[in-house]
Amino acid sequence: FELDIVYENLSGQSLDAKALSLVTYAQRHGLYDRLVAAVQAARPHLDFGAAPKASGGVATAEAPANPAQAGPTYNFYGPVTGSAIGESSVQAQNIAGGNITINYSEPKDKAEFADQLKQLEALLKQAIANGEIKDARDAETAVEDIQNAIEEVKHDEPRPSRITRYLEGAKEVIESASKTGVAVLKAVPVISGLIKVVSTIF
After folding, report:
1. 134 and 180 inside one domain
2. Residues 66, 149: one domain?
3. Which of 24, 73, 125, 199 could hold 103 in an S-S bridge, CB 3.0 to 4.6 Å?
4. Does the predicted model carry a pTM greater than 0.85?
């Protein structure tokens, strides 16, 4: 896809992880609509549905949406299958599976940051329950990292370096998940957004 993205620089070791990284990058840099359009052009038989009006927050039963948040919402119906992207070798069997909605905006203050950490914890636990993170030790470590980040944020003087370290550890586990599932896909933009704003909020 011609999206002005240096695909070789995308993070992730597995094909699924690179696909998640592509989705996150496109959302963060305002290329999500172009990515969706490119996938639609390559796979016209897929029914993506219409993108509804943004309603804010991270839409999930375990992690209630925050009405103060507002961001673009995208619906995907059924598997989105990708082949080679442009001239690079980024491939994925499934960019997203099932019917999912991604709606995310970066936190603007400590309260929103703490709320999104709790949402991330819920998404991570959901991913584990769904079998999206198959290594039990990795799953346990990721949950501990998020819980440690939650505790660090509660301190009178939270240390940004610690928060970032905890989140980076959990992000590595999420991105290396062996299977691309609903909870994992929703968790990626959340944890990436949190890492991005740590130094500005704290």
Report:
1. yes
2. no
3. 73
4. no
